[in-house]
Amino acid sequence: MGYTLNRDYVEAGPFLKPYVDEALEEIEYVTGDTTTKYGKERASDGHPAPFPLHYVEVGNEDGFDMSGSYEGRFTQFYDAIRSKYPNLHIVSTTGGKDFLGARFPLAKRIPDVMDEHYYRNAFDMESDADHYDSYDRKGPKIFVGEWATREGKPTPNFNSALGDAAWMTGMERNSDIVVMGCSAPLFVNVNPGGMQWESDLIGYNTLTSYGSPSYYAQQMFSNYHGDNVVDMVGEGIPVQLQKLDHKDSLNKVTPKTYPSLFYVTTRDTKNGRLYVKIVNAGDAAKEVLLELKGVSSVKGNGKVVVMKADKPEDTNTITEPKKITPAVVAYKGFKKAFTYSFPKYSITVLQIDTQ
To answer: Domain boundary at 196, 223, 250, which?
Structure first.
């Protein structure tokens, strides 16, 4: 979009117009029907049906743009895209406290979504797990377009998985504004000399591949979640879980975390099932009393999904691909109030059926 990594750029105006025109042509190629010029070309390339495009991002990591040209360039792209494709969500790349620029530097046009990128160690991820709790609910939505805890190589170790899981509790808790997230980078060749960037989610060689502990942490968060965030207040022990009646009630929540203990709870509104996620990044087990409020009954039988390690440095490798993976076990002790011990260095999901 008229800017390169060596800080060369094209000024907004007539010189930028060819770049804007090309972006509009690309969108038409993706979304246009076969009566349009570029939709017809897509069909001739073998895909007659339009693709369901919802988001378009302008630039990449322009919070680091020292030229000060992004506002003008973004405005020109924004106006052209909004005029021709009013239903598309336009994403700006200047978001995030890790960027040098302010979060809302675009005085002329406010984007629909801000793209934020975070690469950190486990301590920094855990200490910032409440990152989105105080974000303005009236501002743009958030796409965490690149993020990862970077400890261990070529793939993350379990300490990275703990940092990732702590960070994900914050994203999930604030899913009213965090609309998307994407861990990066994804793949790494584990052969000598094959690594370009550490740490990567999935390792591979010529014959096989494996998922890192961070990969399985994300799998746990993806597979076990409801459609409504539940109020979860912690002041030491006990922890209270209260059903929320309205989605916007999340705006009033100010969750607190134990040192090394992070959590989020969601509820499936169709069947009443609760998913309680607890991350214990500490070196000792944590016994927690959980009290469920706002439910008429709790089914005693449920499921626990847990992933843990003896040491935070433990990891998976090409020769031990399943050393650390989630275990699913049946559990019979769920009640309206019950105590559960969360192991050291662990990520746990409690699946509880309620009415």
So the answer is: 223
